[in-house]
Amino acid sequence: MSASFTAAAPSEVGAAPPAAPPTLPSPADEVRRFWAVAAFGALLVAIGLGAAHFMETHGHAVTGMSNQIVWGLPHVFAIFMIVAASGVLNVASVGSVFGQTVYKARAPLSGLLSLALLGGGLFVLMLDLGRPDRIVVAATHYNFKSVFAWNVFLYSGLFAIVAVYLWTLMERRMNRYAPAAGLAAFIWRFVLTTGTGSIFAFLVARQAYASALLAPMFIVLSFAWGLAVFLIVQSAMYAWNGLALPVAIQRRMTRLLGIFVAAAAYMVLVYHGTQLYATKLHGFERFLLLDGGVYPLLFWVGYVGLGTLWPLTLLLAPSPLGVRGTVLAAALVVLGGFAFLYAFIVGGQAWPLDIFSGYTASSTFMDGQVDAYTPRLPEWLLGLGGLGLAFLVTAVGVRVLRFMPQDDFARFDLAAGQPVATTGTTAARKG
Amino acid sequence: MTSHRRAWITGSAAAALGVAIAPGIRLIEVAQARTSGEAASAKVRWGLLIDTSKCDSGCDACVKACSDENGLQSAIEDRQRPQWIRKVMLTEVKTGRQASAPMMCQHCAEPPCVDVCPTGASFKRADGIVLVDRHACIGCRYCMMACPYKARSFVHEPLANQRAQVPRGQGCVESCTLCVHRVDRGEQPACVEACAAAGRGAILFGDLNDANSEIARRVRALATQPLRADLGLDPGVRYQGL
Ligand code: SF4
Ligand code: SF4
Fold first, then answer.
1. C-alpha distance from B54 to closest chain A C-alpha (Å)
2. Where is the composition biased (Low complexity) (chain A) (predicted)?
């Protein structure tokens, strides 16, 4: 998909005509390209399944995870996708709950992406279980005190609510129920991300996690990550269809991303600020932010530098950002998200638990030691499989159903080589 | 109790006796050894008292005994292999005083591992022993994240040579069972016996609820403490001399 950004590049210069008319693929080419894209997604999924099978037959000994770092790279992928799945719905919410037309037109795509990301995240989470074959046990035996069990409800609930919401959006007779369904989805995803944050916030004994700020922090992070994913997919889809996103809309959405990224950085700052306030957490914060090796590197260079400051300079710059700039900024936000989660999840476990207060401890079980974790190949492949699933669901969904925004195409008139702004759906080649 | 749990408890006891007994039979509750099929009694609270002054830093008899009793032998690296009990070497930061102590599941009265377990595989018996039902555990490891004592291990590798009375499972989480199969026969946990046999006697096992038991008397008379008392989890294992 990414190969065809050039088709939409003229939007960078606004209404000015392009120097050379872009070449759009013929319908037959386009079908071939769709199958290539779908096959690529399916291949990633197959590789992910293969990795999971390998882990199940050989045990998690083939991963880098241990009895100290029990959640590793797969959880970084899974939690990123689940958090982004909630955040990407924000686009729909801004449309239906706050009545913004530009966003309303994007509600179907936002819903589809939410389902795709949630599916991808759960794919990784489930297949990383020690006993993925017992998923039925998880679905039939609930411990209602467990935050994890609540999350099982929240995830399946989100699937159902978003599916109904999409139906109300796409089926004309159901359109009048769309605002109600949109509101339900809006509320549900708040609860869902609160639930994701709470998975960590309820771990009272862990220095890294027992903080009431985690749930709101994850909600704001979800806004930024979700919108970033949305902008990447939207840009790719416009390019794919030989369409240019109107500059005004693009500018609005990139500004919103800038605001979300800044707000998320603020929440992360407050979180670390409160952690630093508690003296007993100083050792851990020092480790995570200063001398913990890969974790401070990922936090400062990955999350703060690449994932926050660089995209912010792009997104909030006075001159309008082109398609490439938008995709670059959004991709940086996504990368920063992965870096943040890796430091948060893995770094939080690498630091030893303080069990014997007033003593330094050592043992064969890593007491008092920082555990060195290096993700191994099966973990990477499983994570990529989840991304592949989200990619596949999106590609197929967009193709089979009409998920393209239908209101604001600026399509190239191929004969004239001029961009033509149209408002109807007729000008759009069916996505 | 779910039928799973009942099956696990009675199953392990039945295997030990070599007889098959229908699950779910409940006999009158007694304070000590249970017969197969009989439910654990809430009148009992099994616990351990560990005297760190008697624990020898060079000795690992308890760890060996646990490994033999429960069939935990493993060839993989330390950070991945299951360790239900471990020897921790301690140095007091202020004074430099050295001590050592065995560390295992603390059999908390308010166990966070049980609270967070999504399927209910982690559970606490009426007599305070915290166990994992290996037929219901999905291997999510959330209990390992939640345990403040790092008491749990994940089975990272395929298993061989399991003990009939200690069912284990690859991809499941497990931890010290307080040798529930022995306790239910009226015996002591393997680590306690081994420590005594090594001439140390640093681990005392007994019923904390029975005012006349040795452990209850010592806990009453001496300054003992649970680890991480600040968390208020009321562990069944107490430490002396820390
Ligand atoms: S020590 Fe850990 S595993 Fe044992 S009961 Fe307490 S929380 Fe659960
Ligand atoms: S790993 Fe097993 S025992 Fe632990 S929380 Fe998950 S299902 Fe429960």
1. 18
2. 7-17
Distances (CA, A) of B55 to A17, B199, B228: 84, 10, 20
Angle at which helix A214-240 crosses helix A178-201, to 10 degrees, equals 130
Structure token pair of residue B123:
């559970």
Tell me whether residues B170 and A134 touch, CB distance under 8 A. no
Mean pLDDT along residues B145-165 = 94
In the predicted structure, residue B4 carries a pLDDT above the cut 80: no
Interface touch B228/A206, C-beta < 8 Å: no
Residue A55 token pair? 């882990």
Task: Nearest chain A residue to B157 by CA: give it.
Answer: A59
B148 lies within 8 A of chain A by CB: yes
Which of A134, A144, A145 to mutate: most B Cβ within 10 Å? A134
Residues 6+ apart with CB under 8 A from B151: B103, B104, B105, B106, B175, B176
The Cβ of residue A358 has, within 10 Å, a number of other Cβ atoms equal to 12
Question: Which ligand lies nearest the alpha carbon of A142?
Answer: 2
SS3 label, residue A402: coil
Does the Cβ of B104 fall within 6 Å of ligand 2?
Answer: no
Complex ipTM more than 0.90, yes or no: no
Residue B175 CA: nearest ligand 1 atom is: 3
Q: Give dist(CA A272, CA A386) in Å, integer.
A: 30
The residues, ordered by sequence, that sit 6+ positions from A24 with a Cβ below 8 Å of its Cβ are A7, A242, A412, A414
Which pTM was predicted? 0.87
Q: What would the 3-class secondary structure string for chain B be?
A: CCHHHHHHHHHHHHHHHCCCCCCCCCCCCCCCCCCCCCCCCCCCCEEEEEECCCCCCCCCHHHHHHHHHHCCCCCCCCCCCCCCEEEEEEEECCCCCEEEEEEECCCCCCCHHHHHCCCCCEEECCCCCEEECCCCCCCCCHHHHHCCCCCCEECCCCCCCCCCCCCCCCCCEECCCCCHHHHCCCCCCHHHHHHHHCCCCCEEEEECCCCCCHHHHHHHHCCEECCCHHHCCCCCEEEECC
A293 reaches B (C-beta below 8 A): no
pLDDT in tens, A370-390: 999 999 999 999 999 999 999
B71 close to ligand 2 (CB < 6 Angstrom): no
Question: Residue B123 is which amino acid?
Answer: F
Are the beta carbons of B157 and A142 separated by less than 8 Å? no
Q: Do the Cβ atoms of B154 and B173 come closer than 8 Å? A: yes
Identify the H or E element spanning A276.
helix A247-277
